[in-house]
Specification:
This protein is about 55% helix and about 15% strand. By secondary structure, the chain is an alpha/beta fold. Strands 3-2-1-4-5-6-7 form a seven-stranded parallel sheet, sandwiched between helices. It has a six-stranded parallel sheet with strand order 10-9-8-11-12-13, sandwiched between helices.
Length: about 525
């Protein structure tokens, strides 16, 4: 019995020992956790202290930076004011007669007295040129005054300022601003026509005392205040912006305050021209500003109208396509005036730059169709063009010369590269081609897709196929004339005259449709 009791005690002792050891291990584990937590606490405290030190350092740097910035800002403002004053003084100095005399004396001394014979001759020529420019400007001032007074005395109840951005009016060029101007003058409406020139020494078209006055853009801007402030009596004053120049954005509200009706005539896809290296002056923000602040906005094509409409909710954008000179409308002889020819002659007239004329497509087609002849009329032919024998470049031609040349053509083409640039175009040439009794083949150009006898292609292969198709087309003269009679330049001029007679509305009114 005693042995049994001993065994039980031994079992209990063993069990208690194991339990004690387990508890001891748990206590030791807890102690280790406590130690680890204390270490973490110490580390966090140290990190907090370090972060606070860095925070204080950053804050100190921030305060110093703010103080420095404020100091530099004040210094910058002071320097800008000083710079402005110095620029003003420098401008006054450069403009002074004394400084001009000193500069002229220096040129005289270095070029004429000390220079070789080439420099002496150059100096004498420059004196002659300066004299001519001064005389030209003086003559311009006199002519401008004469023109303004003539307008006031004229029987017309309107006056138009055409800010064209094109060349001066001439036979070789016949773009939209020039055509509309000619029609307005025919209707006895005086027009101040501002054109673009690259060289200030270029001759200015002389004023002959009629209803048209032409002014280069540099002199236009210089004389702008004088023109828009002039008292024209009760005449309606219309200012047509034909390209979105920065000066027009600056002036549009001033013009309106002076009683001018402002019209932005969107005749080209300027943004896309800018992207292909043309219209380098273009700024989309300037165009958007003009669209929103002009009284009336019109566009030559549906895609352009839709684009301009995205810029504004203040007004509805008008559609005002290009048109035809009435002199080209078919006469009683109709299309019979065309010369009969067994040759298949495909013709084109217009600008020839590679930026939008698809030379690759035309050359490829010409090589495949050696029996066809291509006649190209226009300017800006790319250099080093290697044309196949059946493509003839005829150079620029006057309208009368072009009409005679086109009498032998079978088909007319508009091979503009498919692009957003072409999508915005309503080519004047399509109206002229149709008036001459020519079916037209064009690459994609949404505005003209529904025009009569215009065949649209979306690839070079399709372009070639469409040309073949036109060789057997018999055009309905009545259908063509009906279309053209609704699209004459005189109709576009009448639109402007009608807008000029409307009561001016505020910026938020809807105009046109």
């Amino acid at each position: 019995m005693n042995q049994t009791i001993d065994k039980d005690y031994k079992k209990k002792d063993s069990s208690n020992t194991i339990k004690v050891m387990e508890e001891k291990k748990e206590v030791e584990a807890l102690l280790e956790q406590v130690v680890a937590l204390e270490k973490e606490q110490i580390a966090l405290t140290m990190l907090k202290e370090k972060v606070q030190i860095e925070k204080d350092a950053y804050y100190s740097r921030y305060v110093n930076a703010v103080k420095s910035f404020q100091h530099e800002k004040k210094r910058s403002i002071t320097l800008m004011e000083e710079n402005k004053k110095l620029k003003s003084k420098l401008h006054n100095m450069n403009s002074s007669k004394a400084w001009k005399l000193i500069r002229e004396y220096w040129r005289f001394k270095t070029e004429f007295i000390q220079g070789n014979w080439k420099l002496k001759i150059k100096y004498l020529k420059s004196l002659k040129s300066k004299k001519q420019v001064v005389q030209s400007v003086n003559k311009f001032d006199v002519s401008l005054q004469e023109f303004l007074k003539k307008i006031k005395r004229s029987s017309s109840d309107q006056v138009v300022f055409m800010f064209s951005g094109t060349t001066y009016i001439q036979d070789f060029k016949g773009n939209r601003p020039i055509r509309i101007t000619k029609e307005l003058v025919k209707k006895n409406i005086p027009v101040f026509f501002s054109y673009f020139r690259w060289n200030k020494e270029d001759n200015i078209p002389s004023y002959s005392g009629d209803l048209l006055f032409q002014s280069p853009i540099d002199l236009t801007i210089e004389k702008m205040k004088q023109i828009i402030d002039f008292d024209f009596g009760n005449k309606r004053k219309i200012f047509i912006i034909s390209f979105p120049h920065i000066s027009c954005a600056r002036l549009v509200n001033v013009l309106k305050s002076k009683g001018w009706l402002t019209i932005y005539d969107v005749r080209d896809e300027w943004e896309e021209f800018h992207k292909v290296g043309q219209a380098k002056w273009f700024d989309i923000n300037v165009e958007k500003y003009i669209v929103n602040h002009a009284d009336i906005v019109c566009a030559v094509s549906k895609p352009l109208r839709e684009k301009m409409q995205q810029y504004t909710n203040r007004k509805l954008i008008n559609l005002s396509p290009n048109a035809l000179d009435s002199i080209l409308l078919p006469t009683n002889q109709g299309f019979t005036r065309r010369k009969k020819s067994s040759e298949k002659i495909v013709g084109y007239i217009g600008h020839l730059t590679e930026a939008w004329f698809d030379w690759e497509a035309i050359i490829e087609i010409a090589k495949l169709e050696k029996e066809w002849k291509f006649e190209i009329v226009g300017h800006s032919l790319p250099k080093n063009m290697n044309l196949p024998p059946n493509i003839a470049y005829l150079g620029p031609k006057k309208p009368s010369e072009f009409i005679e040349i086109s009498k032998k053509w079978t088909t007319a083409i508009i091979p503009f590269r498919i692009s957003k640039l072409a999508d915005g175009v309503d080519p004047i040439k399509v109206y002229e081609y149709l008036a001459l009794g020519l079916p037209v083949v064009s690459f994609r150009m949404p505005q003209i897709h529904d025009y009569p006898y215009v065949y649209i292609a979306n690839s070079t292969k399709e372009f070639r196929s469409k040309i073949k198709q036109t060789f057997t087309v018999k055009m309905d003269e009545k259908k063509v004339i009906e279309f053209l009679m609704k699209n004459r330049w005189e109709d576009r001029a009448d639109e402007i005259i009608a807008w000029g007679k409307e009561e001016k509305k505020n910026d938020f009114s809807f105009i046109g449709g």
